[in-house]
# Entry
Amino acid sequence: MVKKTLAQYLPGQYAQIVSVAEHAMGAKLIEMGFYPGKRVQVLFRAPFRGPFAIDAGGAVLSLREDEASLIETIDC
Amino acid sequence: MCTKIALVGSPNTAKTSLFNLLTGMNQQVGNFPGVTVEKHWGKFNLPDGRVAELLDLPGAYSLNAYSEEEKIVSEILHNKQHADFPELVVVTVDVTNLERNLVILTQISDLDIPVIGVLTMNDMLIGKSVSPQELTNAFNQIPFLKINGRTGEGKQALIDFISACNIQPVEKFISFPLKENLNIAEARRDAESRKTSIVNRLKEVPSFVGVTRHSFTTKVDKLLVHPILGYAFFGIVLFLIFQFMFSISAIPMDWIDSVFLNFSQYLQTKMPEGIFTDLITQGIVPGVGGVLIFVPQIAILFFFLGVLEETGYMTRVVFIMDRLVRPFGLNGRSIVPLVSSAACAIPAILSTRVIGNPKERLITILVSPLISCSARIPVFVLLIYLVIPNTYMYGFIGLQGTVLFAMYALGVIGALVVAMVMNKFIRSKEKSFLLLELPEYRWPRWKNILLHLKEKVQAFVFDAGKIILAISIVLWAFAAFPKINEEQVAQGKTQIEESYLGQAGKTIAPVFAPLGYDWKMTVSLLTSFAAREVFVGTMATLYSAGENFEEDESLLTRMREDINLQTGKPAYSLASGLSLMVFYVFAMQCMATFAAVKRETKSWKWPLIQMGYMGFMAYTLALLTFHIFS
# Structure
């Protein structure tokens, strides 16, 4: 499987989280639902390369591109 | 004893509704020391006659704190010595969002603080329900119960639980200890093991259902975050808010204005002549009126903001605006305050509390008054009548209207440029991040909106109101003393001219002479600190003419004929007129704004910095304008 970050997905695509980067935001991202093993779906994206809206099970969360790129994923 | 209770919960878990349900009208609001996060607390009666105190802690996902709100919650719950440390914590848990909302519940339990989980939003699980007993079994016997914030169902069971206060020790969820400031690695380790523990435990809850989004929300989102329709809709929303703040609020504002004017005239006739009467009729009564005049606009803005927040639309605004406003150091939530500044900066500044990041909030507060507000209109209109010919460019573009538009545009550009500069200079402890929930669309809970609105109005009237009243009395005294004598009246002098304020204006007039102003304009700049539109009234007094210049031409005629004694040219030329307008675009001549910024930043530093930078910009840009056009 090719490793990607969540920032590389297009609306409609699913991803499975592999790990979250060692970063000040790391714990926050995990607590909010981006924990290893979780399957998420990119729902839509704001215009002009704006934030992503991601269905993380139970809630839709928005992530900026630099936040999404902290999350390592594989296709699923 | 469980009489000291704290309410904790993640955002969007109906925490406020539960707080209102328990305490009813018996609640108070203040601030946590040192920060601008609101503190709500209240009381309610237990069946045995005891009174329980309930502290509504700010919304928090985790004790591993990122936002100012989370830091407060973390600080209180980690310190047993803290004055607000509770005996019992009630945690609101949205049943559609269990994985996320149980994080803080297990953290609090791991601190050995007694905790009870209250399941909310049960009606969102149409036809299904999560069993509180099963959650209790899976989560180390922590008690859970269901509540319906609208009908009050479950409220009695919660009160009974609090009253009985039968608390059992709970096994730890995570073995290594939590502390207040975990480092990056520790916080991650805690988050990862806690999340795994929660996910595994939820597997033991047969009634736990994964929730999919309502198709209604998905459909509406397709429109509201659409690259064209999304912005168009937001534009319409802003337009409506602006219209209401601008024109609808004019009706109660005129009413307040005339009530206070009549009252002060009435007192003038009934009370004996003298300084005391003048103080009351010209200082205090108009001063109180000058505070209350802002109430309609504040109420209207907070009503709309409440609807935007409650329905869930505000998070979509942040979502679509984030990328566009980030280069300016602003937040998606800055847009509504900035647009409402075009009506009045006061409600705008009070409404910036929705901006979570302190730096982005500060920048929004600092640049809001640059957007031209409605109080500047009379000043612009008078000056445009005076110095801009009523002609048309290319036969159809009115020159006067173009100049008015240019002044508005100048304010907007100024605000954006200043925001960009401040973004570079203001240092921030917190990293800017977005990570926000886009909740399901929902019908607003009107009671929550109205309670919040009432609080905001009260806070403004009693807090910022004190400063506004004090400044208006001082301004009145400087304009009322020393009294002019009959000899001066015979020479055609006016009270304002001979007052301390008038003398001060004449003394500092040389400072403003390079901008093309005479002493009369300088005095008007000083009196305008009460409110910008006072400029017109001061001019009318100085020229002994009627204030209503659109019907009574005497003021316009006298101003037009006035000669600047230093230059020998007309006082109001194209250059001096434009220079004055530019000065009014940038200068912070508004004591109410000053008071509001003082209240919202909890310091004298920021309103003073703001007055300083705006005054500097006003002076230099007016100077530049005067030289370009003369």
User: Anything to note?
Assistant: Residues 446-480 of chain B form the longest helix (35 residues). The radius of gyration of chain B is 29 Å. Strands of chain B lie at 4-9, 27-31, 38-45, 51-56, 88-94, 115-120, 144-146, 392-393, 397-398, 436-437. The mean pLDDT of chain B is 88.
